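note to self — DONT lose this again. spent like an hour looking for the file last time. sequence + predicted structure for the chain T wanted, 271 res
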Amino acid sequence: MTHSETRRDLGRQATNVAGALFQVGATAVAATSIRAETDQTTPLIEPALYAFSVWGAIFGLSLAYAAYQALPAQRTDPLLRRIGWFTATTFVATGLWSVFVPRGWLLAALAMLAINAACLSTAYLRLATAARHRAPSRGQRWLVALPVGLFLGWMTAANVVSILSELVRGGLLAAGGTGEAAVGALLLLLGGALAAAAVAIGRAGPAQAFLSYGGTVLWALVGIVVQQYDASLLTTGAAIVAAVPVALALLGRQPSPSAPRRRHATPPVAA
C-alpha cells in the first residue's frame, strides 16, 4: 500500500469520526432552537413527535459505525473504502442541517437533507452490490449495514416531509388547505413506492440494511397516521396506502444468507 493510499484511508476514517461527533454535538446544542423553528410550519404529513425519537438510534449507531471503521484493522477494508466518504459526508451534512435550521436558512437545510439521501442511497446500493461478491462480516452487518439502512429510511421520510413544508412556507400551497393535503398525499404515495423498490433492491445485501430501512419508513408512516388522522383524512389514507407496498416488500422471500452468488459453469455439451 502506497503512502498516498494510507493518507486517504486515515483521512476517511478521521472524517467519519469527526463528522459523527459533529452531527451529534451540533444537534444537541441546537435542539431547542430547531424545534422552535420547525414548529412554525407543521405540514399535514408530519409524523407524531414520538417518531422523532429515532434520532437517538441514528446517532448512537452512527457513533458505533464511526468507531468501528476507525479501527486499524478496518483501514483498508474494501467496503468501507467504497462507502466511507459517503457516510462522512452524511454526518457533516446532518451537522450543518442543525446549524442552518435555527438560523432560518431552510433551503440550505433542505439541500443538506437531499445530500444525505443521495449519499446514503449510494452507500446502501454499494452494500447490496458488495454482498453479491463477498459475504459481509458480522461487523459489517451490524455496524455498517444497520446504521446505513436506518439512517436512509429516516432520510426518505424527512425529505418528503420537508419538501411539503417548504412548499407551504414559500406560499406555493395554503397551509392546511386541500392543495397541501393533495400534494402531501402524492408525495407519500411516491415515497412509499420508492421505499418498496429500495427494499427490493436491498435484498441483495445484508438483511440488517433493508430491514432497518423498510422498518424505519413504516415507523414514519405510522407516526403520520397517528398525528394526522384528525387533521386530514386524505394524507392519513395516503400514509396507510403507502405503507402497503413497503410492508409487502419486507415480507417477501428472504434470499439465502449463504456465500455470495457465483455464476455456474456451463455444462459440457455431450458429443
